[in-house]
Design brief:
10 strands, 2 domains, 7-stranded mixed beta sheet, globular, 7 helices, alpha+beta, about 35% helix
Length: about 260
């Protein structure tokens, strides 16, 4: 698999992940023909995001108009890593950086291509990992995930997003330590091109390898389910170090 193909899979993983948020009863997904955005229905809580931006075939002036339209939505934006330099500047207002040198504050884009790259992992007797199957398990996973990653705000709805789990588009995991929920992770499955998402550990149990343990289980299951590649986006140095310990490789320098 070439570096360009891997970057394309990272882009596809991000767009698929964001699209799944809108695939729920309380959410809306709007495809304008030039970009897509998700937002909650009136009076409902939920994530907002613009993604799947498709402007590069348009005349330059129309690109400028649509870029201004996107910015006016005042939503977070995912612009594909493989977007052109010109489109990047229109959307972000600054030059695109190529062959990026990484520092601790940078978001990094990573991928794992083979189960054989996974480090060995031994689970201690006081740890149990549950693959979410029931509505009750999903509600617990969603509540814990929202609390750890979003300050309690329900980006993942404990009821309305459960059908994603039922359909296998999302495979969620809870790690219990001494019978208490301690860490979470999930795999998004876009027809074998998977992404690792929603990784978090309760604050009092961090730096004990629990996130690595639950991620190892999720990744191993994904490869057994015929994943061709697993991608991940690390937003800080701690996340980057975790994924590097799982043998994910950084691809920022190939942008």
């Amino acid at each position: 698999m070439t570096n360009h193909e891997i970057l394309k899979h990272i882009d596809d993983g991000a767009n698929f992940y964001l699209c799944l948020f809108g695939n729920a009863e309380h959410m809306e997904t709007i495809d304008t023909g030039y970009y897509t955005f998700v937002a909650p229905k009136p009076s409902q809580p939920g994530i907002t995001f613009v993604f799947d931006i498709r402007l590069e075939h348009l005349p330059v002036e129309t690109q400028r108009e649509k870029a201004a339209e996107i910015r006016a939505l005042k939503m977070p934006i995912w612009l594909d890593l493989l977007a052109s330099d010109e489109l990047y500047k229109l959307i972000n207002g600054r030059e695109k950086v190529h062959k990026q040198t990484i520092d601790d504050n940078d978001e990094v884009y990573m991928a794992l291509l083979s189960k054989e790259q996974l480090p060995s992992s031994k689970i201690s007797d006081d740890i149990k990992i549950v693959k979410v199957r029931t509505a009750e398990e999903f509600a617990q996973w969603a509540d814990l995930t929202n609390r750890l990653l979003n300050g309690g705000y329900p980006d993942m709805h404990p009821i309305f997003h459960y059908p994603l789990c039922q359909k296998g588009l999302m495979r969620c995991y809870i790690l219990y330590k001494q019978e208490k929920p301690a860490a979470v992770a999930a795999i998004m499955d876009n027809k074998g091109v998977d992404s690792l998402e929603f990784v978090a550990t309760v604050p009092e149990l961090r730096r004990m390898g629990l996130a690595k343990t639950v991620c190892t289980q999720a990744i191993s299951d994904a490869f057994q389910n015929n994943a061709q590649i697993i991608t991940v986006r690390a937003i800080n140095a701690a996340a980057r170090d975790l994924y590097a310990s799982l043998n994910f490789k950084i691809y920022n320098s190939y942008i």
